[in-house]
Amino acid sequence: VQLQASGGGLVQSGRSVRLSCAASGSIFSFNVMGWYRQAPGKQRELVAVISKGGATNYADSVKGRFTIFTDNAKNTMGLQMNSLKPEDTAVYYCVGHDTSSSSWGQGTQVTVSS
Predict the structure, then answer these.
(1) Which residues of 97-107 are buried (b: 16+ CB within 10 A; e: fewer)?
(2) Which residues does 66 contact at the CB level (< 8 Å), separation at least 6?
(3) Of the chain's two ends, which shows fewer C-beta atoms within 10 Å, N or C?
(4) Over 90: is that where the pLDDT of 1 sits?
(5) What are the residues whose beta carbons fall under 8 Å from the beta carbon of 73, sequence distance 6 or more?
């Protein structure tokens, strides 16, 4: 199953952006899906994950501001990002994990201006 992320762009601090991750097959083929991000000069870091059962977990830096969700009707996973900060600027990647492998989307740039 291939993943494709979309929805990034340039946004002012304090505003919101919604990212979407579309799957070529069923998102239910994944046990866990998530979002990572990589800022310039930094390592890729976990932002949020959601299990097939709907359990979620977030990095401390985004708790209370970001929400990960799945849209079963559209077969997509999303990330609602509110109250954005300049430090949220990064390339955001979606990923899906099954029992034997992982699939990564191509990444979408989010730039937050102060």
Answers:
(1) eeeeeebebeb
(2) 47, 48, 58, 79, 80, 81, 82
(3) C
(4) no
(5) none
Band of pLDDT at residue 111, cut at 50, 70 and 90: very high
Q: How far is it, in rounded angstroms, from Cα 61 to Cα 59?
A: 5
CB 114 within 8 A of CB 14: no
E strands in 2-85: 3-6, 9-12, 17-23, 32-38, 45-51, 56-58, 66-71, 76-81
Q: What is the pLDDT of residues 18-43, one digit of tens each?
A: 999 999 989 989 999 999 999 999 99
Q: Is the pLDDT of residue 3 over 90?
A: yes
Residues in the chain: 114
Which residue is associated with the tokens 């949020």? 48
Angle at 103 between CA 110 and CA 82, to 5 degrees: 30
Contact in structure between 33 and 70 (CB atoms under 8 Å)? yes
